[in-house]
Design goal:
alpha/beta, four-stranded antiparallel sheet, 9 helices, globular
Length: 248
């Protein structure tokens, strides 16, 4: 049975025009709003409803940004208009929206340099977003898109630990999601905020998975990502090898 939040927004999802390029004015509306908390607003997006339970790699961001949200809605509308099942609509929205845009290219380059393709027996990390998508699960510690005064929430202002809304999703919804994924999977947190959150959850015994710490956020807005990655690369490569040796 689909998640109750999905059921709530399903009629509005199915009414989207499959041929339109969506804008913030189309979907950052009361129709898709889940909750407000001060200047924070959380909205629905369909792509994180699909869970790849057999994934070997789990890449975790903070919260879907506007580009991911837009891509997820547009892909869901196209899939629905083609007569696909609800599960296929959600799966295709996930595949289209997961770290969409230039961020995906940056991410694939870093995954390649860390040795992920060799550990998985694939040619390139780009295959994880194409023919070998069955090996990958993408998600966020905050399942649905969050905006602060209309801009993407980055995890800093307000701090996560000062928001009851965000804490509810991070410390309840997120562990419940990962509990459905095989414990031998490698979790790759993107950036310090996600790193620290997953470390806390692991220490509390809520995440039994292996974690690759120190991975920079691949967003183009992170101007320090190349330097950060160069500093962390050997540690990241060693972490991938250790996971590969322990799970093979």
């Amino acid at each position: 049975m689909p998640h109750t939040t999905l059921q709530q927004f399903l009629p509005a999802l199915r009414s989207l025009n499959p041929g339109s390029q969506l804008t913030k004015q189309d979907v950052l509306t009361d129709t898709f709003r889940i909750e407000n908390e001060g200047r924070l607003s959380m909205y629905y997006a369909p792509h994180n409803e699909f869970i790849n339970r057999n994934a070997k790699i789990v890449i975790v961001g903070i919260t879907p940004g506007w580009q991911q949200m837009k891509t997820a809605f547009e892909q869901f509308a196209r899939s629905h208009s083609s007569g696909e099942t609800l599960e296929t609509c959600l799966k295709e929205a996930k595949e289209a929206a997961g770290f969409a845009g230039s961020m995906r290219r940056n991410l694939m380059d870093m995954l390649d340099q860390c040795g992920i393709p060799k550990a998985l027996g694939v040619t390139s990390s780009s295959d994880l977003f194409k023919k070998d998508r069955n090996l990958l699960h993408t998600t966020s510690i905050i399942k649905y898109p969050v905006f602060i005064s209309g801009k993407n929430y980055t995890g800093h202002q307000p701090p996560i630990d000062r928001s009851p809304l965000l804490q509810r999703y991070i410390y309840r919804e997120f562990p419940d999601e990962l509990a459905q994924i095989t414990s031998s999977a490698l979790i790759i947190p993107l950036g310090k905020v996600v790193d620290q959150t997953i470390l806390k959850l692991t220490e509390e015994g809520k995440l039994p998975h292996h974690t690759l710490t120190g991975f920079p956020h691949p967003s183009g807005a992170n101007g320090h990502r190349i330097k950060q990655f160069q500093q962390q690369r050997e540690q990241l490569q060693a972490g991938v090898k250790r996971w590969d040796n322990e799970t093979c």
